[in-house]
Amino acid sequence: MGIGSSKHEQQLQALLLGVDGSGKSSILARLCGEEVRTVMPTRGLASRLLGLPSGVQIKLFDVSGRRDLRSYWSAYFSLAQAIVYVIDASSWRRMEESSTELQRLLDAEALVGVPLLVLANKQDLPGALSAAEMEACLHLGAIRDRPWHCLACSALRKHGLSEGLQWLAHTAFPETTPSVRTSRPSTAVALRPALPEPAQDAHAHAQVQEEQPIGVGRRQRRRGAGPQGSSDPEPH
């Protein structure tokens, strides 16, 4: 059984990671009912609390994927009860870089056993790898120390995002959340206790954005722009 036994305790924390330009901030914005074409890349840390129809709440911590800030990812490993790793499935140019960063996460002792959701983003672009192709490219089948799942998605079209959150919720709370069809047997995991957020890191210029739970899977009224970042919108 996952953390907590009553409905109001069914909350898990997940790190939203990926190299810059993968579209993770756009994914978070889309899940919050915001427009994705004007999303600014995260420059430190932004967090949002999402409420699923099942009653499970997922707190996503979007950590900057800029090359000069990735060394600070480990500062937030203590928050992770799950990892959502976003990859631009249309960019062969950065596939090796994305794969290398993912392997570093898988090798981190602080993240052993932590469930992994890989989102092959930008399926709306030509040449994007499918979920099966991404699994093969990243050698995900070799993972034995944690539950994992790979989904094709598009932040622009909001395709595959709710399914990803549903997989996370079912992995944590299998008795109270519906299962997701995968190519492998579903595996429940006892999540480690949730830890409080660390103090803002002056070196990483963390900018934490907090909100009340935002419903996923229900129509959202338009919200403001996403976390502050550079002057250029993030590619979806």
UniProtKB/TrEMBL annotation:
Keywords: GTP-binding, Magnesium, Metal-binding, Nucleotide-binding
GO molecular function: GTP binding; GTPase activity; metal ion binding
Binding positions (GTP): 18-25, 65, 121-124
SMART domains: ARF, SAR
Superkingdom of origin: Eukaryota
InterPro entries referenced in this protein's UniProt entry, alphabetically: ARL2/3, P-loop_NTPase, Small_GTPase_ARF/SAR
Binding, Mg(2+): 25, 42
Disordered: annotated segments: 193-236
Keyword flag Transmembrane helix: no
SUPFAM superfamilies: P-loop containing nucleoside triphosphate hydrolases
Entry keyword annotation includes Metal-binding: yes
Protein family: Belongs to the small GTPase superfamily. Arf family.
Protein known as: Uncharacterized protein
Upper lineage: Eukaryota, Haptista, Haptophyta, Prymnesiophyceae, Isochrysidales
